[in-house]
Structure formats: structure tokens, C-alpha cells
């Protein structure tokens, strides 16, 4: 598998400290923790990736998904991280998907788990992540952002 041209020759950091937050690898070793957070957060994630995900997701499917994310990361095709606070709590995930066959274009997905602090944390973390990615990704790129920042009907 060839790296995406925007990521070729650059090994993305697996871990990063970003102020109050830190990025850690989204990998199969985290499948059970990830599955628990994703399924608990289904109300704020439903349809986030363009379908009914995570409805019906099984732990076995989640392991496969995380293995795919890890393979994509290690081959520099796309990037994915778990977002944690400094206490180690799993807050959500961040992904960078360069567009296949295109240069300097792609998508960033950022979701945070269902919690009373979700919207405030998203508002705090999005500019931090955007600045970090701006410094790390090749200059001149345009990445569309997708964030689970909708409030749930009360």
C-alpha cells in the first residue's frame, strides 16, 4: 500500500500533547474501550459518518475497524487518534482522510463522547487540533471539517 502523496515521507506522530488534551493511537488494543465509548455515545454519533453508524456495531467489527485505522496510519494513507485528557480518559477521536487521487484536499473528522462537557470540549479542542494539523500537514491544503457538535433535542 502506497502512502498518500500528502503524507509520503512524513511519519505522523502517534502521540501528541496538545494543551489540556493528548492524542494516542487508535489501534486494535483499544477496541474494547473504544467500543464502550462509541456505543454509549450512539445518540451523538448516529449518522456522523453518513449512515446509521454506530447502530448495530459489534465488538468484532470494531476490532476490524481499528485494525484498518492502524494499517492506514502506519502506511500513511490516513490518520486517526484517540483524544484523551491528561488523566487518560477517552474523550473521542480525530481522523484525517486525505482525498484519494488528489493533493492537498481531504476531510477531518472530530467526535467527542456523549457527556455534559462535550460541546465545551469540542469548542476548546477544535482550534487546538486545527492549529496543530496546520503546522503538521503540507502547506496550502484544504480539509473540510466534520464535528459532532449538534445538540440533542431536549
- Main sheet overview: 6 strands, mixed
Rg estimate, integer Å: 15 Å
Amount of beta strand: 15-25%
* CATH architecture assignment name: 3-Layer(aba) Sandwich
Mean pLDDT: 94
CATH class: Alpha Beta
Kindly state the number of beta strands. Answer: 6
**Strand adjacency order, main sheet:** 1-2-3-4-5-6
Helix and strand sequence:
EEHHHEEEHE
Question: Which stretches are low in confidence, meaning pLDDT under 50 for 5 or more residues running?
Answer: none
Topology:
Layout (H helix, E strand, L loop, with lengths): L15 E3 L2 E5 L5 H10 L1 H4 L13 H16 L4 E7 L4 E9 L6 E8 L5 H19 L5 E6 L7
Parallel strand pairs: 5-6
Antiparallel strand pairs: 1-2, 2-3, 3-4, 4-5
Helix pairs in contact: 1-3
How is this structure best summarized?
This protein is α+β, with helices and mostly antiparallel strands and 154 residues long.
